[in-house]
């Protein structure tokens, strides 16, 4: 028997059980029950995501391809499918915050010295290699945004060793999984109602179930006078178009050489500006060092083109395209 955690929009996760081995119909039935007894047609209108992979219910052959990702204690997200027409409000984060005090009340304690406030013989929670009183644990856990590591050995906390409710542990794990999910270009969260959305045709103009009309990629409310309904972008100031655009400016070390004014990191997709130094740029987010001209890692650029920091490696800057950005579904 497999225990799975299904996350419907703006609600706590729901625990369901699947016999092992399970079938497509077993999964459809479980999702239907989570949606309040939805019809088969309505159930199939939702897109599911698991481990940053799509889980397609309406096509048996596609389901079989990804079914192996359904494992014991896995998280499954329900996304609204968008068929045409940042910082996000995080429902999971809100749920985790609201339930934290209740869950801490269930945690076993023992009389120890708190590593943070140094109070002696006070009820403490065992936190991997050390002990913390509940008040200090709560404050510390929140400052780490629920992704804490041991203060002694630096290993990530084993959440189920601390919290007793499986659904709450699943919610905490899902926080990170949802963050990864929202890095996909075709996944978004409605800024009004907070539900997860999946863009099937990659058009910018979309209408949420809450009736909000907006650009899927930059999240701005739709303005027909300044926006165009095209794939991947609504205008020159739309998020992904901005990440791909650049001007060529004089290179600091050689005025006869041109270099892009900005580039998107090929590894984490963070946008970075030319810093008036050499052509090699270290991403401020993931620390990946790459060439602003050929986009190769620094070592590969030097090896492949026999190029120095102040010399050209390719005749013109390599063009980045929308296909570089990660997607839940393949382009």
Describe this structure as you would to a colleague.
A hairpin with a 6-residue loop joins β15 and β16 (271-273). The strands form six sheets. Strands 1, 2, 3, 4, 5, 9 and 10 form a seven-stranded mixed β-sheet that branches. A three-stranded antiparallel β-sheet has the order 6-7-8. The chain is of the alpha+beta class. The chain folds into three domains: 1-88 and 173-201, Phosphatidylinositol 3-kinase Catalytic Subunit, Chain A, domain 1 (Ubiquitin-like (UB roll)), CATH 3.10.20.90; 91-172, no CATH class; 246-324, no CATH class. α4 (91-104) packs antiparallel against α6. The chain starts with a strand and ends in a 26-residue tail after the last helix. The protein is built from eight helices and 18 strands. The chain has helices spanning 24-34, 40-44, 60-66, 91-104, 134-143, 166-181, 239-244, 298-305; strands spanning 2-7, 14-18, 46-50, 53-55, 74-82, 110-112, 122-127, 130-133, 187-189, 196-199, 205-207, 213-215, 248-250, 258-260, 262-264, 271-273, 280-282, 289-291. Residues 85-89 have low confidence and may be disordered.
Residue stretches low in confidence (pLDDT < 50, at least 5 long) are 85-89
The number of E-state strands comes to 18
Radius of gyration: 24 Å
- Biggest pleated-sheet summary: 7 strands, mixed
Shape: globular
Write down the overall mean pLDDT: 89
Task: Summarize this structure briefly.
Helix content is 23%, strand content 22%. It has 331 residues and is an alpha+beta fold.
